[in-house]
Amino acid sequence: MKNQVSKKRKIYIALMRILMAICTVSTCALVLFLVIYVLVKGIPNISWKLLSESPSYLTGEIGILPDILNTIYIILATLVIVIPLGAGAAIYLTEYAENKKLVGAIEYAAETLSGIPSIIYGLVGMLFFCQFLNMQTSLMAGALTLVIMNLPTIMRTTQESLKTVPASYREGAFGLGAGKWRVIRTVVIPGCIDGVITGCILSVGRILGESAALLFTAGFAHAINGFLEGLGSAGATLTVALYVYAKEQGEFGIAFAIAAILMVLTLIINLMAVIVGRHFKKRRSI
Question: What would you measure as the largest C-alpha separation in the chain, in angstroms?
Fold first, then answer.
């Protein structure tokens, strides 16, 4: 009887291993197919002329330099606002807040915000920033909308990183006479900086790939502007430009070129997050 049970268990374990192997191979194959397909279709359409010029409606030539600049502008504007807000909120909730019910309510609200579809953020951003605050369709309105979208991610990532710092580190610093803020600044934050930076880098990837919210708030313009002037005017990011060229103009070659650029940038951002995380972990272990 025991032999029969052990045989059935071995067969069950073998089947589960085969099933998990099939799932793993299928997932990896799907990712590789998507990456290779986009790169093969997009790289041949990438040229220096495409990257270094703006589109000309007179000659019909297409360039994505304004879209690249708009993407950089909106990433910088979003990070400048969201990192202090998210990190500051996380530090307060983890280190200062004593009302656990309030902390739980805020964390629940952050989890709820992170699950809302991005197109709803775009609608709210259009109604509040563009119309109510009279910012019109602009990169700044898009950046503020992205701040609201990425605030839960930065806050929760920083919170989880702060919780990984052992309580003994704090107690030792307090025992030496350090104040609360000095302990946070010199002991807690350096002890979890790898997780904080990794979360910020991954947020850049989300900002880079966002399009639905920006369709309502940032607009479709392809004009080259300076940083401050660009934030106050409408502009298409790379993802919005991809939508416009593919859906509105039928330029699928240009759309695949932009998709390949976005794919490469996303891979670089994810690789940077891994490298930075490992670097700071090594420094902390020394």
Answer: 84
